[in-house]
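tokens incoming
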């Protein structure tokens, strides 16, 4: 089944010299092309791979300047698209991902059930115990925030870099706008949602060895907060005011307005009551509590609608068959 599609693997490479050869060796025959993107690696990963790997599928591409994992993946995407690959898989070179899972990763795309797939290390509760506790907590918190900013409420483990994408969807991505650094995987989900692409999680196990992460939480937490807020605002504007409008388009601003008014008014009255020593009247309490309750209900109603609006019609199928019933559409056009 897998040989009917031309599959390319992109491996962004930066300080992964100790693991990358074993990663390449584990890539199966279902893959036609392997791109190793040497992202100006100080260890000379590109030269090392060329000297020690004789796989005929291997192509090494070098960056003169470090562009980050996102920049390296975008370079690989462009190269794979130029070679007319049908599916492009991204695998990290640090050995944490098992390339033998590639058939499972690309299966939903081949079957037409998804446009983009990604690994999820949280399916097996027993395997979760092997994950470092700090990383487990960070992923859980980040997953919830990413659900808000990306709109994919059905996904978990947003920073998982084991991904696959259909060529038609990859061609539609704004390569120059996608974050090139550690926010790359999360920003990809936001961009995919603006395209209304279907994304599916694939269960996988992660391996944690002696590899050292280059990610410093203290350095990226502020950047992540700003970018998540920006993406959330853009997504809401695109999906609920620019592309379409619904009852949810009214529920969100009304809900937030009521909630903020009740909170500010109630806080003012509470502070005033403490300073004067006089209790607030029942009417004042109701005028504070009722907007908060109504605002919370409207906001929850919006979230319920947003959760139910996760894309479920694969973009690749729509592009293959943009006019599934031409006679019916032509008749509608003639009637107009």
């Amino acid at each position: 089944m897998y040989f009917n599609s031309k599959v390319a693997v992109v491996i962004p490479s930066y300080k992964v010299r100790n693991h990358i050869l074993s990663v390449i060796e584990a890539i199966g025959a279902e893959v036609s092309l392997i791109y190793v993107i040497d992202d100006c690696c100080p260890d000379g990963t590109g030269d090392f791979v060329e000297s020690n790997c004789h796989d005929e599928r291997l192509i090494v591409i070098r960056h003169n300047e470090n562009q980050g994992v996102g920049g390296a993946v975008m370079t690989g995407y462009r190269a794979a698209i130029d070679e007319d690959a049908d599916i492009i898989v991204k695998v990290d070179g640090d050995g944490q991902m098992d390339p033998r899972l590639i058939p499972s990763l690309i299966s939903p795309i081949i079957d037409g059930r998804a446009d983009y797939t990604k690994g999820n290390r949280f399916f097996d509760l027993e395997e979760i115990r092997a994950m470092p506790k700090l990383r487990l907590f960070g992923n859980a918190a980040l997953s919830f925030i990413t659900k808000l900013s990306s709109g994919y409420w059905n996904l978990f483990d947003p920073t998982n870099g084991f991904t696959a994408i259909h060529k038609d969807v990859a061609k539609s991505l704004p390569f120059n706008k996608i974050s090139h650094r550690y926010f790359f995987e999360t920003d990809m989900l936001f961009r995919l949602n603006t395209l209304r692409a279907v994304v599916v999680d694939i269960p996988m196990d992660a391996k944690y060895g002696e590899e050292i992460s280059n990610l410093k939480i203290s350095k990226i937490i502020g950047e992540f907060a700003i970018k998540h807020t920006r993406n959330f605002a853009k997504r809401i504007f695109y999906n609920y005011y620019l592309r379409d409008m619904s009852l949810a388009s009214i529920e969100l601003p009304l809900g937030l307005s009521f909630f903020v008014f009740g909170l500010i008014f109630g806080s003012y009255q509470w502070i005033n009551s403490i300073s004067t020593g006089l209790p607030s009247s029942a009417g004042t309490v109701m005028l504070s509590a009722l907007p908060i309750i109504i605002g919370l209900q409207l906001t929850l109603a919006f979230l319920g609608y947003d959760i139910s609006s996760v894309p479920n019609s694969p973009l690749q199928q729509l592009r293959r068959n943009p006019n599934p019933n031409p006679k019916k559409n032509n008749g509608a056009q003639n009637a107009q």
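note: Confidence is low (pLDDT under 50) at residues 326-336.
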